Amino acid sequence: MATGFHIFVLLFLLLFLLLIGMRVAFALGIAGLYGLCVMLPCPAHHMLANLTWSAVNKFPLTPVPLFILMGELLVYGKMNESLYGTLSEWMGNLRGGLCHATTVSCAIFAAMSGSSLATSATLGSIAGPEMVKRGYSRTLTYGTIASGGTLGILIPPSITMIIYGNLAGVSIGHCFVAGVIPGIICAGMFIVLVDLWGRIDKSSMPAAKSLGLSFRQKFKNSIKLVPPAILIFIVLGGIYLGVTTPTEAGAIGAFGAFVLCLIQRDLTWHLLWKALLSTVRTTSFIMLIIACASIVSFVVQFIRLPEMLTSFVLGLDVSRYLVISIFYLLYILLGMLVDPVSMMVMTVPTMLPTVIQLGFDPIWFSVVITLACEIGLITPPVGLNLYILQGISEESLTDIAKGAAPFVLTLILGLILFTVFPSLTLFLVNLM
Question: Which domain holds residue 178?
């Protein structure tokens, strides 16, 4: 009984600290310290240093700063602007062409940066003003960008999946590969949704018209995208073929992005310093979360909460799909409060044993919970992508949320699809 009371207090303390706006890492650290001092047979606050150091001193985490650096260099090298401009030329004569170009740009840029927040921020500043200027409604414009940005944590290389692979003890490469088909399907569903939106509300987008560019001109302008496309192919292909580890692939990606920036002469010493500084800040933020979450994880493991949860769930006479649906709902709710990395480190150690006992594949689970995290990122009222776009565009948060709402329903449909047909996520993995 006492254990149950302390578990309740720990969860209440954690949620309370998050709701009042405390940084996730510090909220986790305070909750973990409470657990160490109260929930163990004797106070174990002296274990703080050892637990936090052991959590971050792991080789599987080394790809994190490398992929972050790769994305930062590609951003500061202005390759995202070239990508969006080229895709706009190819799709500008279609109904909702700029929306489609934005979605595809988000998908490709996500493969470069691995970050949903970075994708939303970048395309929000580049595509948003251009789409509004050309007659697209603000609701559709920023709804498209917010939802497209969520592809950043699903399409590999994904920082979130690196964290999941480390926590779950599964192949990070397999997690990457499992996200490819779902990412492409979600991007395709967004394009279909935009087309339907334009047919229902014709005032939301201008009529399709030709840009007056010949095929040769479009092809010539697309040549500049070949180098970053080759870089992505090398990074992901090396992992898929088993030639490189995720760490080696991240190093190749970061070095390749640096070389591309030098070739295009877009990188100055000042921009290089900013890219390195941003990489250090982001990596430190992630590592601090992991370190503090390890304290909570130790307490949870010590009191055998995962086993208690598994026994309780298995003792219920309900469908395993009902249980997994409850887990999805939890992730969507958490997504309104915290970022995907925080969600992973807070929940995976506790939930994964139950998921495996229910007969679900851990690689498949990496994709569906990542998708559930995506939904939380654009779910009103507190989706992180919505706040980022509000800060960039100074648009009403209500309008951005209204624009994102149809895409939330689309992602939920995708979540159902991948749950009913898990082979969509595991097909490429089974070929490895």
Answer: 2-431
Count of Cβ atoms closer than 10 Å to residue 309 Cβ: 16
Task: List, as one string, the DSSP characters of 12-58.
Answer: HHHHHHHHTT--HHHHHHHHHHHIIIIISSS--GGGHHHHHHHHH--
pTM of the model as a whole: 0.76
* Angstrom distance (rounded) from CA 6 to CA 422: 37
Could you give the CA distance from residue 357 to residue 371 in angstroms, rounded to a whole number?
21
CB contact set of 239 (below 8 Å; sequence gap of 6+) = 156, 173, 176, 177, 245, 246, 249
Which residues fall within 8 angstroms of residue 108, CB to CB, at 6 or more apart? 83, 232
> Residue length, the chain?
432
Write the CB contacts of 232 (distance below 8 Å, at least 6 apart in sequence): 108, 111, 112
| Total of domains in the chain | 1
Which mean pLDDT values do the consecutive 10-residue runs of the chain (432 residues) have? 69 79 79 80 70 78 80 72 68 71 75 66 73 80 81 75 85 86 87 85 73 70 75 78 80 86 80 86 80 79 71 77 86 73 79 87 91 79 70 74 86 91 88 76
Cα(157)–Cα(64) distance, integer angstroms: 10
